[in-house]
Amino acid sequence: MKMNGARILLECLKKEGVDTVFGYPGGTVINIYDELHGFKDIHHILPRHEQAGVHAADGYARATGRVGVAIATSGPGATNTVTGIATAYMDSIPVVIITGQVPTPLIGNDAFQEVDIIGITRPCTKHNFLVRDVNELAGILKKAFYIARSGRPGPVLVDIPKDVQIAQAEFKYPEKVDIRGYKPNLEGHPKQVERAIEMLLGSRKPVVYVGGGVILANAAEELTKLCNMLEVPVTTTLMGLGAYPEDSPNSLRMLGMHGTYYANMAMTNTDVLVAIGARFDDRVTGKLATFAPHAKIIHIDVDPTSIKKNVPVDLPIVGDVKDVLFKMIKEVEAHPDKVKAFKEATKEWHEEIAAWKAKHPLTYKHAANVIKPQYVIEKLRELSDPDAIVATDVGQHQMWTAQFFTFTKPRTLLSSGGLGTMGYGLPAAMGAQAAFPKRQVIVVCGDGGFQMNLQEMATLVQNRLPVKIVILNNNFLGMVRQWQELFFDKRYSQTCMEQPIDFIKLAEAFGAKGFQATKTDEVEDTIKQGFAYDGPVIMEFKIAREEKVLPMVPAGASLNEMVLNA
Amino acid sequence: MKHTISVLVENEFGVLSRVAALFSGRGFNIDSLSVAPTNDETISRITLVTRGDDQILEQISKQLNKLIDVIKVIDFTDGSGIEREMALVKVTAEDESRAEVLRIVDIFRAKIIDVTPRSYTIEATGSPAKIDAILELLRPLGLKELVRTGPVAIGRGSKGWKG
Ligand SMILES: Cc1ncc(C[n+]2csc(CCOP(=O)(O)OP(=O)(O)O)c2C)c(N)n1
């Protein structure tokens, strides 16, 4: 059947199983919006800013494991998406971004609202396409979704000129994709897996180091099974939180700059390190020269470029993490005797770790007269649903959430790890809530980052998305202030946000609800009221203003050179 | 170490800038670059010369392979490939130096492709080392202008790139 390009786009989205898109209209996508009018199969959410639209699609993708979709018009609409795209790119999140483009004959002529969004987003997309012929549209969209979700996932942008949206073509959605230059290697090499297990079982001080790749590959179950079979200590990155239950005795919790003392000590002393779906980010490794100095490193990743990029690797395994973990489990099951001996041999290591845990647990000084942010997070965990989804913004509150919330399930933490994008949290939570209208979705923000996309309150109210917004208000750009305190002699240059904001009135102005706690003994009630309210709500906590995130590895220092308390 | 790398890519617009951006975005160097269509009209071939230690070269090759439009990456490590480059050289040629230029052109089996009373323009092809050598001899006579293509490379033996 013949139809126009705009309609073809919608039919393709439908074929891909897309139920929700986040988009913002404009002149070069008006034909798409015209087709969308009355199109029953796709639910459209109108954010108040295109950046937020992409973050919402990203939050939707992280929470569900499906591809998130965002639409924006050409020019300013397209450039507004860039921060969202880069955020998704750094964390390998599958998102397809559709942008409108000026009509093909005008491209390159500095037409009204023209930008070269293909050029602009080339370094921050997994791939991007300019559609030049309506007959290619369906095939390109098929490829876009396939590229976005396969291998190491990532954002893919499809730029569609207005005339292509108007032109007519026969609609045929291809069954299969074949891209000769793109054949992700998904199957881990069995011999390498065998060798990995042999190395691991031969170790005395093993550590498994887990990144977001395990969650992206939906391999948390396999990971948990393998690690529990071996009773091996597990530490995760920020992106890996939830891949392994943090309440397990084997959990070392998060490692790196604001990781636990015991995770970092374990990394410094381990003899065999198994890195799974993790990329040795500098926030994790600290000073590279002294990172895991005694360890043989096994690195499992679907993306060969991740391997040996930052650290030398003794045993690389390229493949889908889920497949490799499955094979590892089989291999372990085949050697019960060796496993028994391994558990015996690693007893001492477990004792050593237990001693570190006892010496420096994650902790903070509680106070009755002033609200400690860590206490708020602990209370949130206690009072929230077990399957609650928690988004964070970026800053101190993000690290306190990572340290004190105790994540036990994959896809329950949505946080901008790689890019560290302030303004991410609220729209990401919005996307997750759109995917799961019934689940509890909480976003933890600082007062600074909240102000970067607070207009999305309007979207929450309009779409009845009952996101619970927690603002840890220290009237500072807290994380930067902390660095200024520790490394710049308390010269608080431009990090104080003294201007009082009435967050309760602000919530009300949007048609939401606001609650505030200024004292420790109000924290619990405020959270209960916020959770009980049927709709989006702000819970503001006036926290200790100069509280620090500790422990901390100063930038460029070794993991065992932690500042424990200051 | 210097490496000559062939990259077979989809003959689509924007591919070259993807490859170039990969180098600039990661701080890798490109010494020279040449691109043109192949016997298969859907494929272009990029020949580029880059430098780096083994670790950098491994990254470059993996990153190139990761580009969706890249079909194959061939690293002509020493000996596995034949390289040829062309140079157009405008050299001062007056009085007694005219004969000297002609001698050099003859020795290197180059060609004079344009003549004026004060200059010769020479076309020289060969391995990059040969081009370097002829330039070294011509330079003292007065180089007015030099254009080099950068090498193109092909594997030795009877096999094509598909094996
Ligand atoms: C878009 C953006 N701009 C600047 C930064 C640098 N930055 C990182 S954390 C931070 C402070 C965040 O302050 P706030 O949102 O109040 O959270 P807090 O650290 O106080 O919890 C800043 C400015 C960033 N990460 N993202």
Automatic annotation (TrEMBL), chain A:
Pathway: Amino-acid biosynthesis; L-valine biosynthesis; L-valine from pyruvate: step 1/4; Amino-acid biosynthesis; L-isoleucine biosynthesis; L-isoleucine from 2-oxobutanoate: step 1/4. Coiled coil: none annotated. The gene is ilvB. Its EC number is 2.2.1.6. PANTHER family: ACETOLACTATE SYNTHASE CATALYTIC SUBUNIT, MITOCHONDRIAL, THIAMINE PYROPHOSPHATE ENZYMES. One of its GO terms (molecular function) is flavin adenine dinucleotide binding. It comes from Geoanaerobacter pelophilus. Pfam families: TPP_enzyme_C, TPP_enzyme_M, TPP_enzyme_N. Residues 3-118 form the Thiamine pyrophosphate enzyme N-terminal TPP-binding domain. InterPro entries: Acetolactate_synth_lsu (IPR012846), AHAS_TPP (IPR039368), DHS-like_NAD/FAD-binding_dom (IPR029035), THDP-binding (IPR029061), Thiamin_PyroP_enz_cen_dom (IPR012000), Thiamin_PyroP_enz_TPP-bd_dom (IPR012001), TPP-bd_CS (IPR000399), TPP_enz (IPR045229). This is Acetolactate synthase. The keyword Glycoprotein does not apply. SUPFAM superfamilies: DHS-like NAD/FAD-binding domain, Thiamin diphosphate-binding fold (THDP-binding). Its cofactor is thiamine diphosphate; Mg(2+). Residues 193-325 form the Thiamine pyrophosphate enzyme central domain. One of its GO terms (cellular component) is acetolactate synthase complex. Binds 1 thiamine pyrophosphate per subunit. Binds 1 Mg(2+) ion per subunit.
UniProtKB/TrEMBL annotation, chain B:
Pathway: Amino-acid biosynthesis; L-isoleucine biosynthesis; L-isoleucine from 2-oxobutanoate: step 1/4; Amino-acid biosynthesis; L-valine biosynthesis; L-valine from pyruvate: step 1/4. It comes from the Bacteria. Residues 4-78 form the ACT domain. One of its GO terms (cellular component) is cytosol. Its EC number is 2.2.1.6. Catalyzes the conversion of 2 pyruvate molecules into acetolactate in the first common step of the biosynthetic pathway of the branched-amino acids such as leucine, isoleucine, and valine. It is an enzyme of class 2 (transferase). CDD domains: ACT_AHAS. Signal peptide: none annotated. It catalyses: 2 pyruvate + H(+) = (2S)-2-acetolactate + CO2. This is Acetolactate synthase small subunit. Belongs to the acetolactate synthase small subunit family.
